[in-house]
Amino acid sequence: MATEYDLVIRGGTIVDGTGAPGYRGDVGIKDGKLVAVGAAPGSATREIDATGKVVCPGFIDVHTHYDAQVLWDRMLTVSPWHGVTTAVMGCCGFGIAPAKKKDRMFMLRTLEGVEGIEAESSAEGLGDWGFETYPEFLELIERRGIAINLGSFVGHTAVRIWVMGEDAASRRDPTPDEMAEMKRIVREAMEAGAVGFSTSNSHAHHDPQGNPVPSRIIRYQELVEFASILADLDVGTFHTTWGPADAEMTPEGITRLMDLTGVPVTDTVVNIKPDGSHIVKLNAIEKAWAKGHIWFPQIPALDNTFEVGLEDPFMFGIDIPGRWRDSAPESHALFGPIAAIKTIDGRLAAYKTAEFREAFRKLGACNDWVKNYWPWLIINYTPQAPELEGRMLLDVAKERNTTPADVLLDLSIESDLHARFGAISGHQDPDKSELLRLIEDDIIRFGSSDAGAHVSQLVDSRYPSYVLGYFVRERGLQMERAIQMMTTMQAEVHGIKDRGQLAEGWHADVVVFDPDTVNAGPIQRVNDQPGNARRLIAKAEGIEYVIVNGTPIREHGKDVVDAESGELPGQLMREYLPISERKKRLQWLVDEVRERVDSGAARYTPKG
């Protein structure tokens, strides 16, 4: 007699992702779909006892950079360790497709400069690449297989490099023929199944020569042309990282783009600052919603704490010449010459000189970019003085009656440059009270984990288990709200179909976790990337089962699928909800925001 289910999860507390109260029940799965939610009578090929556990939809990460890693790590670690079953990559205008052979290293150097993804490591992992065009890239991912579901943006910088080569980084405009070719490529990518078009105007995004990346030096009309392709096809999301007004991608510019095209927008990143600058951004976004636009700002769940050190001080800009040439020329002048030193012994000798120490002191005292980070630097790893780990650098400097620059240099030199420091580059919200206030609003979405990027400095891909362990268990955030923000609400950002909710007929992406123990584990340093390159990882605690399209991929903290050569259940997503349908489904939120703005009850009013 045939069983009614392939898998039944019995007796857990079902939190379905909608924000509705949890309840005890069963979840039945057949042929990769949810076929019973609440009661699942009958037999199953396999049953999981979830008594005392929470059963919820798999988590969705809307902002990752797995574009290269997906071709050597089919599990897309570490995201599924923390219950992520769906991710979207190609954000901020960057990626590796399309890419002509002659431009490959230039493309990887750009990723290295912006996203901290080591070019030599990526080149080794990619081998012969196996694709050039964007459709070929998607086809290769499907042939190789993936453990979790994946969506991909087509990136502005990649498109420009394909058409203009290294001229894409120059200030010249594309010719009419080049512009027509770029539009053809974007349309081709969208028709092949891209989730949308991504670009960047961040002042921190530079190419290998220290110049602004191609997406930063374009005319505004170019963005309108690309957004119009999404509008014409009635599908896709326009993702931008905003910054100075080089391309008019100010809040007003983004609003005007939506006025002209009607495309949904998501932007990176809203970081909480004591000066209230984040409220200025949110004020513009709130007004755009009141006009009828879809604009989801991404707010990190963690503080975006980069782990840095003088061995490879990314935050000081020596990974590529001129990285901070625009915003911190003094830092570039000091660290630029050290960038040419390729050995640890050579750099150590340079740091030991009295001349460098004096210059570093002056830099830390007068340069706003460096000075502003001293209060937010944490001592993460000092093998020669472990008692200092976890302390603020500034506090140790005060105890020693010296400068933070001297403490950082001393600890680095004493450890042969192995010392590591945590630089909080995101939120400045020590007690998290402002973040907890902001996420009460339905227009705010978690994002910018940057999974797959900055792998030697950052591991914010652990955010789902952190949210459940810290915000829910320790700070009292309602469990149902936390899960809603990491599932259903995330699917809305990109119009992802039939994922993010435990509902009959939807894809069976499910997580089972222990609410009493779930948390993000400690950060670890490993050398497991191609070429033995280093990265940071953090394991999850209390994530018992991770199920993708009905197939368990992790159980009790371990992979249960063959990551090397076996069949994997993840799907490359190529179909998304039409823009017109997304607007209908989100009309309730437009109405809600319009009412509060029109009634004088706007949530985000800048001071002064």
Automatic annotation (TrEMBL):
Residues 46-206, 438-552 form the Amidohydrolase domain. Signal peptide: none annotated. GO terms for molecular function: hydrolase activity, acting on carbon-nitrogen (but not peptide) bonds, in cyclic amides. One of its GO terms (cellular component) is cytosol. Transmembrane segments: none annotated. It comes from the Bacteria. This is Amidohydrolase family protein. The lineage of its organism: Bacteria, Bacillati, Actinomycetota, Actinomycetes, Streptosporangiales.
